[in-house]
Amino acid sequence: MDEKGFGDWLSQYTDAGICMEAFRSQKQFFRVNTLKTSVAAFQAATKLKCKQTPYYDAAFELDEELQIGKTWEYFLGLIHPQSLPSILVSLALAPGPHDVVLDAASAPGSKFSHMAMLMQNRGVLVGNDLKEEKISALYSTINRLNVLNCITTMKDAARLGWKERFTRILLDAPCTALGSGPAAYLRWNPDHSKKISYTQKRLIFSAFDALKPGGELVYSTCTYAKEENEDVVADLLRNVPRAEQAEITLDVPHDKGQGEYGEKCYRIYPQHLASEGFFMAKIRKKAGGKEEPDSAEKAGGGG
Question: What's the pLDDT tens digit per position in 89-98?
Answer without folding.
Answer: 999 999 999 9
